[in-house]
Design brief:
5% helix; 1 helix; Methylamine Dehydrogenase, Chain H; 5-stranded mixed beta sheet; mainly beta
């Protein structure tokens, strides 16, 4: 018995020291009292890397190629909003917010010299989140109660064309290989829709998360076998679901950082990069979905803080291994981890 206890202690101790604390390579904050929200990244044809940083009253385009010398290229003003979302397609960035003005379409082709507003789509005034299927040239935008998710063709990137709408209450959207995974907020569900015909999407499956909070976002593992979800309520774990049988989706794992309030997860390769509010950025090895293991983290404070503070979003998709972090109070941080250093 004593030997078993010793072995258990050694395993727990090993796990406790496995997570590496990351140091910031650089920080950018605008010279005024303003809060920040979501973030995305853009790699230009010349290899330079840029952060597209959501600010309450606009979007800041920051050259992060040299993290020790972060440089704002342009600030694009927008309606003032606590919430903003940004995605890219080709050399365009699409920016939405929750206070009006429609969807800005930014032309990034003139970087590092300039960024301009190439067009503004006003077919809708607001959206909380968007997602783009680049291969199929489709943009999905969170909508209202009558049109929870709207599907647009961006065959012409400057003139989106609405094709259809679908679903129930939506908070966030993820798309891959003709299937749309919709985080259905207060319904406590994930809706899975087929959009092979984007003018006539169909419901494939909907599954309930047991004792759910507010179902906030979801992201597929690299092999599309598992779906990782977040619920934006204190104490609600990030969960991993097995999608092998869509008629019987099963939860196989769960995890939560010390601050106990996860925001968004993004998966690249075998790792999940989680914006975890007061627990900062948390990186998990998800190669074993039933036993997700934290391998690295960055947080602004010496210990986790509670509530809707600090890290809002993360972007791990640069090939260089740089990870962009948007911090509500302090803007942009850049860190590096070898798990993100791949295509």
């Amino acid at each position: 018995m004593n030997r078993m206890i010793l072995l258990l202690f050694l395993v727990l101790a090993s796990n406790a020291v496995a997570s590496t604390q990351l140091s910031p390579l650089g920080q950018f904050k605008r010279n005024r009292n303003i809060e920040y929200n979501d973030i995305w990244g853009y790699e230009a044809p010349d290899g330079k890397e840029y952060a597209l940083l959501g600010v309450q009253d606009g979007t800041s385009i920051v050259d992060v190629s040299d993290p020790s010398n972060l440089r704002e290229i342009k600030f694009i003003s927008s309606n003032r909003s606590t919430w903003k979302d940004i995605k890219t397609y080709g050399h365009y960035a699409y920016v939405v917010n929750e206070s009006g003005g429609g969807m800005q379409i930014l032309d990034l082709s003139k970087l590092p010299g300039d960024v301009t507003v190439a067009a503004t789509y006003t077919g809708f005034k607001t959206s909380h989140n968007i997602f783009i299927d680049e291969g199929r040239k489709l943009l999905f935008a969170e909508g209202n109660h009558s049109e929870p998710v709207r599907i647009f063709s961006i065959e012409n990137p400057l003139a989106p064309v609405k094709l259809s709408s679908l679903g129930v209450e939506c908070h966030d959207i993820f798309a891959r290989d003709g299937l749309l995974y919709v985080s259905e907020g207060g319904h406590g569900t994930i809706g899975i829709f087929n959009y092979d015909d984007p003018s006539n999407p169909t419901l494939v499956s909907r599954f309930q998360i047991r004792r759910s909070g507010y179902v906030h976002n979801a992201w597929l593992t690299q092999d599309s076998r598992y779906l990782m979800t977040t619920e934006e309520n204190t104490g609600k774990t990030m969960k991993m679901f097995d999608l092998a049988d869509l008629s019987n989706v099963r939860q196989v794992g769960e995890v939560l950082a010390p601050g106990k309030l996860a925001h968004n997860t993004h998966i690249k390769g075998n790792f999940a990069y989680v914006a975890h509010y007061g627990s900062g950025l948390r990186i998990y090895d998800v190669s074993n979905p039933a036993g997700m293991n934290e391998v690295a983290y960055w947080q602004k404070s010496t210990s986790s803080r509670r509530g809707f503070v600090s890290v809002w979003g993360a972007y791990p998709f640069f090939k260089s291994g740089k990870i962009l972090i948007s911090d509500i109070e302090d803007g942009l941080f850049v860190v590096h981890h070898e798990s993100a250093q791949r295509d």
